[in-house]
Amino acid sequence: MPTIWRACCSTPTATAGAAPRSAPAHRPLPGATAGPRRRPITWTSWGGCSMGESASSNFRLGRWLTLGLVSPWRQHRAPPADHRVRILMYHSISRRVDDHAHPYYRTVTTPERFREHMELLRDDGHRVMSLGDAMRWMNTPVLDDGAEQPSPVVVTFDDGFADFFTHAFPVLDALRIPATVFLATGCLNGRFVNGQPCLRRAEVGELAARGVSFGSHTVSHPRLVHLGQGDIDKELLRSRQEIEQITGAPVTLFSYPYRFPEEDGEFTARLAARLKRNGYEGGVTTSIGSASAHDDPLFLKRLPVNDDDDAELFRAKLEGDYDWLHGVQLASKRWRQWTHGRAVA
Predict the structure, then answer these.
(1) For residue 6, is it within any domain?
(2) Is residue 246 part of a domain?
(3) What is the phi/psi pair of residue 43, to 5°?
(4) What does the alpha-carbon distance between residue 197 and residue 8 come to, in Å, rounded to a whole number?
(5) Which tens digits make up the pLDDT trace of 175-201?
(6) Which residues have C-beta within 8 Å of that of residue 155, sequence separation ≥ 6?
(7) Which of 71, 125, 278, 294 has its CA 20 to 30 A from that of 6?
(8) Would the pTM count as exceeding 0.70?
(9) Within a domain: residue 97?
(10) What is the pLDDT of residues 132-189, one digit of tens each?
(11) How many domains does the chain have?
(12) What domain range includes position 178?
């Protein structure tokens, strides 16, 4: 196995003869669903979380500030003067226990919660579109007719876990919701760094044929800020080439693995140049917030989602009420940079 892959995956011994995972019956995935309909934020559960006190105190404070202060304040403010897109960031759709991580960093959403989220998008009338379509929409002129422009929603998944095929796609397919999956290609047919099984190449091909979009998440899911230029190029180029070989479609979208070092302007400028050189036109990060035309299209913000997002908090995120956390996140990064003398991945 090439060195660049070893940190990412190990191939299960049973893969070669394993029976294929079953997939749902075919349904087309169109480019968008349409028609916004607002629902008011209620006040029933600012701190209602079934988590340990020490692990969840900051999370509950963030929830209280979002639902108790930001949401009411925003409802009395004029809409933003530019187009905003809510890009949702999912990882694993499974029942795997994720209690060891702080709520902010949990990456597991149960199939039941995920279905609740997707049905809420449908029932509340949100426009859901592909990431490529959303990026084009962001750059269209804003109509100055006094009416608020509803923000489209994009559904993305990082890493390429096998549970996307078994748990996420059946829901997306049934509700006709488009999605983009960012693959760490070194883990295909194997396991991720945390031991979770990843998608098989045949499954990626089938999903692509049924309307799912794919982007690169590197080969081995490294901390790019620690790599030299040559190794970064290998991660970017090889992952893109493999996905294109499997899907038969061009790959122009990228998702940055781990914490995005937005405070390190020198590194992000170098990375942007490498991305463009290797054929990428757009990308997403783990920076919290709504994406807008003012952002670098290679480094768009997203809204992290996991099983702790009940309907109330999920709606608040869709309305932009969670975007305030980006200021806190960026301040924390800059503090760490100042105390450590450089960006810390």
Answers:
(1) no
(2) yes
(3) -125, 30
(4) 11
(5) 999 999 999 999 999 999 889 999 999
(6) 88, 90, 118, 128, 172, 177, 178, 179, 180
(7) 278
(8) yes
(9) yes
(10) 999 999 888 665 555 556 689 999 999 999 999 999 999 999 999 999 999 999 999 9
(11) 1
(12) 57-65+80-340
